[in-house]
Amino acid sequence: MAHELEKRVLLEHAEDPALRTLDGYRRLAGGYATMERAYREMEQDEVLSELENSGLRGRGGAGFSMGKKASFLPRGEMAKYLCCNADESEPGAFKDRELMQRNPHQLIEGIAIAALAADAGHAFIFIRGEYDEQADILDAAVAEAYEAGYLGTNILGCHRDLELVVHRGAGAYICGEETALLDALEGKRGNPRLKPPFPAVQGLYGGPTLINNVETLSNVPHIVRHGAEWFKGFGTEQSPGTKVVSISGGVRRPGNYEIELGIPTRDLIFGLAGGPEEGHEIKAFFPGGSSSPVLTAEEGLDLPYSFEAMAEAGSMLGSGSIIVADDRVSIPHLALRTARFYHHESCGKCVPCREGTNWTVKMLERMVRGEATPMDLDIVSSVQANIIGHCLCVLGDSMAMPVGAMVRKYREEFEAVMADPELTLDPHAVVRGAPETLGAST
Amino acid sequence: MSPAGREVTITIDGREVPAVEGEMLHDAARKGDVEIPYFCYEPKLGEPVGACRMCLVEIEGIPKLQTSCSTPVREGMVVHTRTEQVKEAQNSVVEFLLVNHPLDCPVCDKGGECPLQDISYGWGPGRSRVIDEKRHFEKPIELSPLVAIDRERCILCYRCVRFSQEVAEDSQLQLIERGDRTYVGTFDDRPYVAPFHGNITDICPVGALTSYTYRFRARPWDIEHAGSVCTLCPSQCNVSFTIRDEKVKRVVTRDNHDVDDGWLCDRGRYGFEMFDAPERVRGPLLKGGVEVGWDEALEKISEGLRAVSGARRGWSSPDNSGEGPGRTTPASPGVALIVGDASNEEGFLLQKLMREGLGSPHIDSRPSRGPEVAVLRRLAAPAISAKVSEIDEADAILVLGTDPLHSSPILDLRVRKAIRRHGAKLVVATERPTALDGGAEAIARYAPGQAAHFVSELAAAIGGSENVATPIAETLRDAAKVVVIWGERIARQAGAAEALLAVAEATSMATTDGAGLLEIPDTTNARGLREAGCLPDAGPGLSDTPAGMSTEEIRAALISGEIQSLILFGADPLRDFPDTPAWEEALTAADFVVSFSMHENATTAKSDVVLPLETHAEKDGTVTHPDGRLQRVRPSATRPENVLPNIIVLSELASALGLDTSIDSQPRAFAALTEAVPFYAGITDSDIGGRGIRWQETSSATNAPKASTGTPSERFAEEEGSSPEAPAVPPSDDEVPSEEGVPVLALGTYRDLWAGPITELNPPLKFLTPHQRIEISPSDAQRLDLKNGEAVRVSQNGNSIDAAVLIKERIAPGTAFLAEGVTGANANALLNGGPVQVKIEKVSA
Amino acid sequence: MSPVDGAGMSNPNLPVDPAVRDGRIPDRTEEQIPELHEVDCPPELQERIETLMGRYPDRKSASIPALWAVQELYGWCTPEGIRQAAAVMRVTPAYLESVASFYDLLHTKPVGTHRIEVCTNISCWMRGGDRLLDAFEAAAEGDDAEFFVTGFECLGACDIAPMASIDQRYYGPLEAAEAGVAIEQLRAGDEVLPEKALARRGLAGDS
Ligand SMILES: Cc1cc2nc3c(=O)[nH]c(=O)nc-3n(C[C@H](O)[C@H](O)[C@H](O)COP(=O)(O)O)c2cc1C
Ligand code: SF4
Ligand code: FES
Asked: Residue A118, Cβ neighbours under 10 Å: how many?
């Protein structure tokens, strides 16, 4: 039985393994009825306006209006494409995994309807290579959908075709960036492209392409089924709908919780995730994945969990993934872990990101080894500033923003660690205190 | 690339700058004298990548800084390149680059000519705050036997890999790994061997890619640059020699859009290393390599030549002959001239010496034979001749009877560019698979020796009839601007050139701008020599003269004794001409042979007197590009001291033979040439300048040779009968002919890019010396039970050479191919002027 | 790496390049892409790659799947395997190596049969991911042929931190002690840590 703070739409019936199968999806969730209606009775523009009016914002990080983006695609005879971004590689994010694992057909139905809105004849699900289990589940579901005539040629006798290919990545966070995803899908190294041109105009194989996140597309059947007004009944004006939020780190019950956008962040972290371990306090948290500037407990806990509130607080909702750091976490080490990730994942194409992430890691490593001076702190800060806005894509910024924020908000702690590296008792330079004592997650 | 945009005005740093809509902001700024620092941008490499971020600028109305290299210009754009925000960005990019770039400039070959160095001074923060360890790589290592790579210096600007991907399209040079672990490398760390790879040393903005032939040879401040033209192949690329101590140390491009588009092949780039080979002829020699003085040598020659020409009487001298072109006059003098590689001036003097000094019409500049002058005149018509840069804009390109990669490498890049950037449709019609097949819309493989027949079929197919050439014809028919790149050697076959003219007619080239024929000749200055009068049936300007013998006829006449002596100028028949056995016989039979040669070779060994030639870095003269562009070869390096300027030698030889040319310098020779060639009339050295000038584009074009009679189509009608009847397609699998049981294959040959002195006498290129291979189709390999690499003997009535089997999927069954000019196993040994069938047998080792 | 460090510096003219001797230099200027008959590609691999190419509007899109197929067949992306895939796809081997080397899950160097990726990113790190990695490394010590153990960035399973991906399946939350157990189970060919398999978990909110 779900907690009363949850509002399950995308995760409804998700606890039932049967939902994974076409029959289960039909039986439990009335699956594909909406798609049939859309294909049989709706024009492209009707679907588009439902999506646009719903105010559904992208769940992949940028939070851009899904309907608007779809409406940017030029009309006409040329081949158009739809790509589902299932690369989910940002630290702290694991919601798409849950959605694909438990309800693959919801995504496929969403893709089928979105393809109608985008007039795309070819769709791809780009799923990160690590999600092998989920990719297998999708493969099976896609096969069922073809079998049932929801995919393929002359779908439901409506003279529309849609080919859907599940494309497995091979391990590179950057492929989540929409243009890098396109290059990877075209069989190249996953390097981001210059924008403009934007994918909606010139994307996959040079054709107009709509790219959306798994959760975004999973919302589509519900919106088209119940209408934009129904959707706007949830959440806030600028953040309508529900959101599957991944919570992890220093909480008792990490996991995915689906909530109405705009509820107090405290309810999420304490009410749903059970709050910090016995005898510990929340020190800070990433509100929207590792790319979002950390908020101190004081700053963040009482903010409504919405796109706008997080933006006002100088951070972002991003992919909707909360990573909690309790009072045992050494912020300089947290900064180092964060920087290491982006350094490892930088594609290497542009200079500020490639060299900036590398240099930042080197400086942070010196700090936690006690081989740095306060002047280095200023250099780290200015290097973050020099990265922001100068890169080819925003991966560089995605490190510079959180690391910059940590140095700014926890300068004393950095200075303390630099002065006395022993402050981090743990030889693995992890958490103060014995990690084993952190409770198991159920 | 930039749309044919309208003129707009933008504002840069408060100054109004004219620009073309759609062009990149960086280019507009440059034209407006605004310097924006950059590393990765290079339009020659295709679309901008925006990787280095050095070119960031502020554009009003856009919050983030933009990369000027990738931002198209729009009317009214207001741009700032000097604001604080921009300065900070530039400082930080330079600082970031130096996080990993070693500071070893003092020992770096690029020092003094390094963009990174210059930009660091000009736009960097002055000091770097980096104290951390830089990344380490084994350094420097061999990227190829010719190019060293220092990966620590690499700034990952993508230039070299883009060259490999976007220009040469060999896709061998790649980025390996990710992020700051990325490095430039090749598959399995194998050497990067590709015919254009030397270019990456020119475009690398740091000292990461350097040539072994230049490393530590010189510093920018103790070298000079001398512009000239590479005459190692008909492409005649514009080069700049890097000279130190009066010797060539390096060859780099002199970017001429109308000729080479700013690239060089490795032949032209590294060929200079053979100038100093021990085999270089450094002064006059007698048989057996006896060194003699110039006077003695010239004396010997005039004796030898007068002896034969004097022995004859009654030959018709040019002035009192009224007969015009016809067959050889009954009693002809016993001396003949064959010119291979020579400048226009040299060719002009040589034919003058022959015709006026020795009174002999037996002059040719072709390896075997070619169309008669009437046809050549029509081929030379400006209306149907394409210039190189027109390939870029062509709608359809036909590559006919040649593989540019081997015969004129730089055109291979040009065709690729036309397809990639302009969407030109390529069709290929050849005997042997070409390097360009991959990009072709349609490919026709005709049987060796059947070019003439195929081309006539093609002309008919364009006209509408259905035949083997139809697929090719369709593409040409649907295209407005058609450029045909054709190999001179197809014109050795009777009727081929006429058929080609019919194709030109059928595609209405004459009336279409940007359409035309572009010949790839067999020798480096073939057009210039023909126009200077080195033809058996034409004098300077393709004028009428009493006809003499062609190369092939000369060979026969030497054997029969009708001709007794021979002058060879830059020609090596025993390597380069078909039918080596016959040439052996001819040179043995000859009473007297003079060879002008750059290096000693089998031919000079059989010559009575050998005179040295200048290299293209030493000589002074002009050459004429296959598209009619006169270009100037300028002396850049000093000759070995006993090597005299060829022009002087020729004028002295002339006077020794009693002919006073009073031409003893390049300027005089050029003046005499332009006087003698109507369509060169009035062209001056300054007209030619550094970029050359096409005579078709001068006022003298009106003097272009006139087709003597009939329209191409009528003439073609007459010729039609002469086009061979044999099938234009190779025999299909099941009907391969056989000689007493052993199947025989139709032999085709090609001149390998790397065959000859270019590799054999050139230490850095030695590793490329080709081994003879017999290329056959998989099905023939199966039939003959042959494996890749297996040693076989290839024979043709009595003559045979050894080769290794090379199975190639794209070879037509029933055909086999060998390379010409390969020492020890020269395909020319099996040729005899006609179509040849060969037997292939395993040699039991 | 290529021939000896600094080769050619002593003699810029390189009379004989070592690469020539061991025949690594392609002496056919035209051919950059191996022909099928040169690579003897196993029919099943060829078929598989051809099917993959058929699924995309542009055959090049199949390069990552094709490399997965090569890795499955040979355990890693061997040079031979890459050449075979290149011949089938009509691209250069260098192109495929460049692609393979960009991605963390494709290996251009030999790796053990069982691949164990331990997450050491933020959430797992907070819960002892580093210790878990040490434990797996210790347990697999000295058996590189069987086991490839590596630390890994966020695998997208922070809810079961600290976790590991074992042969492409997720397990967590893991105690350091369970590393040894897992290795033994892999050696014995038994099912790995059944009760810790992600597949078996319910929704967090339902507890
Ligand atoms: C470095 C980087 C990584 C990203 N990773 C992902 C990802 O894993 N999944 C995702 O859906 N979007 C990711 N994005 C955002 C995508 O670029 C794109 O905005 C999004 O997929 C659009 O879908 P949406 O509008 O439905 O959110 C990433 C962006 C960047 C810059
Ligand atoms: S080697 Fe030179 S050209 Fe190639 S990427 Fe590095 S710096 Fe650029
Ligand atoms: S020159 Fe513009 S990004 Fe490199």
From this structure: 26
Chains with 3 or more CB pairs under 8 A to chain B: A, C
Predicted confidence (pLDDT) per residue in A243-297, tens digit: 999 999 999 999 999 999 999 999 999 999 999 999 999 999 999 999 999 999 9
Instruction: State whether A194 and B97 contact (CB < 8 Å).
Output: no
> What's phi and psi for B218, nearest 5 deg?
-165, 160
Q: Does C9 contact B at CB distance below 8 Å?
A: yes
In sequence order, the β-bridge partners of residue C152 are C119
Q: Cα-Cα-Cα-Cα dihedral of B467, B472, B473, B475, to 10°?
A: 150
Whether A290 and chain C come into contact, CB under 8 Å, resolves to yes
Per-residue model confidence as pLDDT tens digits over B405-422: 999 999 999 999 999 999
Does residue B43 have a cis peptide bond before it, meaning omega lies within 30 degrees of 0? Answer: no
Helix (H) or strand (E) holding B564: none
Cα-to-centroid distance, B52 and ligand 3 (Å): 5
Which atom of ligand 3 sits closest to the CA of residue B50? 3
pLDDT at residue B316, rounded to an integer: 39
Residue B823 has which token pair?
């020492």
- What's the pTM? 0.93
Does pLDDT of B708 surpass 50? yes
Q: Please give the order of strands across the beta sheet that includes B56-59.
A: B15-20, B7-12, B78-80, B56-59, B66-67
pLDDT tens, position by position, B2-14: 445 799 999 999 9
Distance CA B545, CA C206 (A): 104
Query: What's the complex ipTM?
Result: 0.93
Q: Are B611 and B649 in contact (CB under 8 A)?
A: yes
Helix (H), strand (E) at residue A398: helix A395-409
User: Which phi and psi (to 5°) does residue B474 adopt?
Assistant: -55, -50
Is residue A99 within 8 Å of residue A10, measured between CB atoms? yes
B89/A348 CB distance under 8 A: no
Which of B65, B97, B156 shows the shortest C-beta gap to A348?
A: B156
pLDDT tens-place string over residues B56-80: 999 999 999 999 999 999 999 999 9
**Ligand index nearest the alpha carbon of residue A111:** 1
Cα nearest neighbour of C108 on chain B? B188
C52 contacts on A by Cβ (under 8 Å): none
**CB crowding C69-100: b at 16 or more within 10 Å, else e:** bbbebbbbbbeebbbbbbbbbebbbbbbbbbb
Nearest ligand (C-alpha, residue B150)? 2
Q: Ligand 2, residue B203: give the atom nearest the CA.
A: 3
Query: Which has more confidence, A389 or B222?
Result: A389
B24 phi and psi, to 5 degrees? -75, 140
C125: how many CB neighbours lie within 10 A of its CB? 31
Mean pLDDT of B366-382: 96
Ligand 3 lining (C-beta closer than 6 Å)? B 38-41, 50-55, 67, 69
CA of B157 to the centre of ligand 3 (A): 9
The string of pLDDT tens digits covering residues B314-360 is 343 444 444 444 333 334 479 999 999 999 999 999 999 999 999 99
Q: Which of B93, B175, B177 sits opposite A351 (nearest CB)?
A: B93
Query: Contact B696/B704 with Cβ under 8 angstroms?
Result: yes
A72, A81, A97, A177: which to mutate for ligand 1, most atoms within 8 A of CB? A177
Integer Cα distance of A113 and A220 in angstroms: 7
> Which uninterrupted H or E stretch holds B777?
none
Chain A residues with CB inside 8 Å of C130's CB? 428-430
Find where tokens 């840590």 sit.
Answer: C193
Give the pLDDT of residue C26. 54
Residue with CA at minimum distance from ligand 1 atom 19: A62
Distance from CA of A340 to the nearest CA of C (A): 9
